[in-house]
Design a protein that fits this description.
The complex is a heterodimer of chains A (362) and B (374). By secondary structure, chain A is an alpha+beta fold. Helix content of chain A is 31%, strand content 27%. Chain A has 10 helices and 17 strands. In chain A, strands 1-2-6-3-7-15 form a 6-stranded mixed sheet, with helices on both faces. Chain A has a 4-stranded antiparallel sheet with strand order 4-5-17-16. Chain A has a 4-stranded antiparallel sheet with strand order 10-11-9-12, covered by helices on one side. The longest helix of chain A is centred in the middle third of the chain and has 19 residues. The radius of gyration of chain A is 23 Å and the shape is elongated. By secondary structure, chain B is of the alpha+beta class. Helices cover 31% and strands 26% of the residues of chain B. In chain B, strands 1, 2, 3, 6, 7, 8, 13, 14 and 15 form a 9-stranded mixed sheet that branches. Chain B has a 4-stranded antiparallel sheet with strand order 4-5-17-16. In chain B, a hairpin with an 8-residue loop joins strand 10 and strand 11. The chains are: A alpha+beta (362), B alpha+beta (374).
């Protein structure tokens, strides 16, 4: 099956609620391509896929990583799972993030004789339950891996851009305690919604310089408040998401957020509990086959390899906790997480070619 | 001495009528009015929830007295049986004495007085005022009000001056709920450079709300906008694209929901905040604010011939009531005249014993005055 046909097929299999169909289909493709497969149930009907081919006890494998899930389509995009090909673009939900990347490495692996592994995870767009479960319970699978190549979107870094480090991510919850009052006597109350809004304004006024690392980014990702009856709201909650660069630890961030309005004792800020650990940041100074990859990039794209650190997180962070170098080397495209998501066909072809060349060099 | 008003009030308080269970009091009022010879009808709001309307005598235009039959549930801080009135000196306590069973008692006794003296009068009693005013909504669509040219409600409207003989109320704030959807621009959370965070934008909008200035009303003050619900959340690792906020808006006469929406839209335009702004849908329409026309000839006659003889002065109420509905939907002059009282919706709800009969006397005088103007 051609690269474009395979990508179109994957887009047509919705994977924003459960990844079952996509997983089952890719199991078939991996088998066809000569991989041996095991799966790991993460949730009912949602499973990770571990695959390898050409196992060689004398060698270490290169592992390609992809996630099976996508974000849900925005409400107006009713045709999200109907792929459209326009000029150099394949448009459809998950084309860029990251079914395109998966297709690129599968194509590269199809005829390879190199020892290669593939790890496909569920739940990346949520809380990385798949990746965490894999590193916690299937550690053996990764023992002989020398390099993880994640085919996640390159987000305008180009095919020559290699990400070798990412920020970590935390979510903090801020609670604003006001005082309820009937709205006819609202001046007797303290409106928690106003308090939260004012705090958000202050945060956005200073957010560029609030944290120490230039890689650190923060945003408010959730707000919730509702008064009981016809009253002034006595409580409001917001979630602040922080992509944390080096040095911006949980404690540093908490202190910085508290400093926004230290005098107000009715604001409580704490790390929001979640089911899986927050993603720690990582950075690999060097990685295996760095020079080879640089040559391949130069050959195929006619550009010098550029190394980056990104202000974003993904399963790459989870895999990096294994201590194995992780690089992100993915296709060109656009509109990730929004309507009209697309991936460049020529970039997929070039990327696949580069992956193949790397496997040939191993 | 135990006045007729007090006796009737005691009976009414003993009839539990916490909304939506107004059936027993509806039946009582129906029977009372039937017994005095009025032409009485039930106007069904819902199953077992009847409003009552009655006509006494013949006229081309009627004065109509109004009361709502329901009460709020008894508050937890009642130290007496809330359904049994107690009298201590001048203070009568019990659930609904001020809000508004005294008003019902006075309207019923006024109806009896009208029947005995051949004075034309209409009376109407609604259900559900303490909830979403379903009763007044149903009544406002009824032909009963076609020949009514003045309405007096027996609710005091939280007039605080206890030294008055009775409370007079000329207008009320309105309350509407407006839904504001603030739109951002979604992107992957790593691309905050190309995205617009809808939560930051809604916070900005709330901040700018305070700069809105509406024309103040001489007695009711300004229109107030108070956010009471807000929500937004990203569905994944993205920048939020949409926030929804509900605003409680307390309006004053002249500031309609359309005016408020127009001002909010101007505000979003001024600060380049992308929004959708609309009145939040509700089955029963919201209550817009109102005030009686002070130049209404009958009102002027009441002021000159009756109010002048008493210690009273008019006020305005900060909360909504069925009066808002009648004034705005029917475009009929509405005032409230009620006995002095207070503690509405609390365990200490009270009404002044001496004010009860003074208020009834005023009603009787108004009935006679109305007859004189026919």
């Amino acid at each position: 099956m051609s690269l474009i046909n395979l990508l179109s097929k994957l887009i047509s299999l919705p994977s924003h609620q459960v990844e079952t169909q996509t997983g089952e289909y890719l199991k078939t493709i991996l088998s066809e391509y000569g991989f041996e497969i095991i799966t790991q149930e993460v949730f009912p009907q949602r499973f990770n896929i571990f695959a390898h081919k050409n196992a060689n006890a004398q060698k270490k494998a290169v592992l390609f990583y992809g996630h099976l899930d996508t974000v849900p389509p925005l409400h107006e995009w009713s045709t999200a799972c109907e792929p459209v090909i326009e000029d150099d673009r394949v448009i459809g939900l998950g084309s860029y993030d990251m079914k395109g990347g998966i297709v690129a490495f599968l194509e590269a692996c199809r005829k390879t004789s190199a020892y290669v592994k593939v790890f496909l995870a569920v739940d990346e767009e949520n809380i990385s339950t798949g990746a965490w479960k894999a590193v916690e319970q299937k550690r053996d699978f990764f023992n002989d891996v020398q390099l993880v190549i994640s085919a996640e979107p390159n987000f305008d870094l180009g095919l020559h851009g290699i990400t070798r480090g990412r920020t970590g991510r935390f979510v903090f919850n801020a609670t604003f305690k006001g005082k309820a009052a009937h709205i006819a006597r609202y001046k007797n109350g303290v409106d928690a919604i106003h308090m939260a809004a004012a705090w958000i304004q202050k945060l956005y006024a200073v957010r560029e310089n609030l944290l120490t690392s230039p890689q650190s980014v923060l945003q408010v990702r959730k707000i919730q408040a509702e008064s009981v009856g016809i009253s002034v709201s006595d409580e409001a909650h917001i979630d602040i998401e922080v992509l944390a660069g080096a040095g911006d630890t949980q404690e540093v961030i908490q202190k910085a957020l508290t400093s926004i309005d230290e005098s107000n004792k009715n604001i409580t800020i704490e790390l929001k509990p979640r089911l899986t650990p927050y993603l720690p940041g990582y950075f690999f100074e060097t990685f295996p086959h760095q020079e080879t990859i640089a040559h391949i990039i130069k050959d195929v794209t006619n550009q010098e390899m550029m190394l980056h650190q990104r202000s974003s997180v993904g399963d790459d962070n989870v895999l990096a906790t294994l201590g194995i170098p992780v690089i992100t080397w993915g296709p060109d495209g656009g509109n990730a997480h929004v309507t009209g998501e697309w991936v460049s066909i020529s970039s997929l072809e070039k990327l696949s070619k580069m992956y193949r060349k790397l496997l040939e060099e191993l | 001495m135990s006045s007729d008003t007090f006796k009737l009030l005691s009976e009414l308080v003993a009839i539990q009528s916490v909304f939506p269970k107004e059936k027993a009091i509806s039946d009582f009022v129906f029977n009372f009015l039937t017994k005095i010879g009025a032409s009485v009808h039930r106007v069904q709001a819902e199953n077992d929830r009847d409003c009552i309307v009655a006509t006494i005598g013949q006229a081309s235009k009627y004065l109509c007295l109004y009361g709502h039959l329901d009460t709020v549930p008894p508050a937890e801080d009642w130290k007496q049986d809330p359904f049994k009135v107690e009298k201590n000196d001048d203070r009568v306590t019990g659930l609904g004495v001020a809000d508004m069973k005294s008003g019902i008692a006075i309207a019923l006794l006024s109806a009896k007085f009208a029947a005995e003296n051949n004075l034309p009068l209409k009376v109407a009693f609604g259900v559900d005022e303490e909830n979403v005013s379903l009763g007044s909504y149903i009544l406002s669509q009824h032909e009963f009000f076609n020949d009514v040219d003045f309405i007096i409600s027996g609710e005091s409207g939280q007039i605080r001056d206890n030294n008055q003989d009775f409370a007079v109320n000329y207008g009320r704030k309105g309350r509407i709920v407006i839904e504001v959807i603030v739109k951002g621009k979604k992107a992957h959370a790593a691309r905050s450079d190309i995205a617009v965070n809808a939560i930051n934008k809604v916070a900005e909008f709330i901040y700018h709300l305070e700069t809105l200035q509406f024309k103040a009303h001489q007695f009711l003050g300004t229109t107030e906008i108070i956010p009471f619900a807000i929500s937004s959340q990203t569905d994944s690792f993205s920048i939020p694209e949409r926030s929804t906020m509900l605003l409680n808006v307390l309006t004053v006469p002249g500031i309609t929901s359309a005016v408020v929406i127009e001002q909010l839209e101007k505000l979003s335009k001024k600060y380049a905040i992308s929004t959708e702004i609309r009145l939040k849908k509700r089955e029963i329409p919201y209550m817009e604010s109102y005030e009686v026309n002070r130049k209404d000839s009958f009102l002027q006659k009441i002021e000159t011939n009756i109010f002048k003889r008493y210690k009273t002065h008019f006020g305005y109420a900060q909360s909504v009531a069925d009066e808002n509905r009648f004034a705005t939907a029917l475009n009929i002059p509405v005032i409230s005249i009620g006995p002095i009282g207070g503690g509405d919706h609390t365990g200490g709800e009270w009404v002044s014993y001496s004010s009860l009969d003074k208020t009834l006397r005023v009603y009787k005088d108004i009935l006679k005055l109305k007859q004189g103007t026919q």
